[in-house]
Amino acid sequence: MSPRPERADAARNRAKILAAAGEIVLARGVEALAMADVAAAAGVGVGTLYRRFGDRSGLAYALIDEREREFQASFIEGPPPLGPGAPAPARIRAFLHALVDRTVAQLDLLLMAETASPLARFGGAYDLYHAHLVRLIEQAEPGTDAYCLADALLAPLAAPLLAHRLRAGRATPDRVKAALDHLLTGMAE
């Protein structure tokens, strides 16, 4: 059974809420993303916001969603080397580099979303990234423990760790990419 289409008024409210939340984040940062402020700016009741998004992390995920969908489309069906058509090692490298850029671009929102609960990072997008890397690693290095290696490659891209390293000045996105490239050095081209 396919999901019911969204009512027109619900779609308008969703668009108003996301626009208001986006403006607040842009103007004042993620820390200022308070449900009452978003509801007031969107002209909807706070209850509508809670029913629709649950909490701040749910609202953060909704703000992340569009860019996430674009990113997923790029590695699932986009042009090589990120998309199909390139050798597996080149695709792994392109994927990890693009994921660094994607994470940095929405770091504060991802940080909020990934720290909402102990396992908030896992599931959804993470599971897709993991499955994608497992498949590519198995192609590049048959017989390797692709399942655990995929987690090892994704670990440095956790928003809390990346935010900590970038803000402490101990890493840059280019340095993270170079380190990931070093880990991939042994993979056959």
From TrEMBL:
<dbReference type="InterPro" id="IPR050109">
    <property type="entry name" value="HTH-type_TetR-like_transc_reg"/>
</dbReference>
<dbReference type="InterPro" id="IPR009057">
    <property type="entry name" value="Homeodomain-like_sf"/>
</dbReference>
<feature type="domain" description="HTH tetR-type">
    <location>
        <begin position="11"/>
        <end position="71"/>
    </location>
</feature>
<protein>
    <recommendedName>
        <fullName>HTH tetR-type domain-containing protein</fullName>
    </recommendedName>
</protein>
<dbReference type="Pfam" id="PF00440">
    <property type="entry name" value="TetR_N"/>
</dbReference>
<dbReference type="InterPro" id="IPR001647">
    <property type="entry name" value="HTH_TetR"/>
</dbReference>
<feature type="DNA-binding region" description="H-T-H motif">
    <location>
        <begin position="34"/>
        <end position="53"/>
    </location>
</feature>
<keyword id="KW-0238">DNA-binding</keyword>
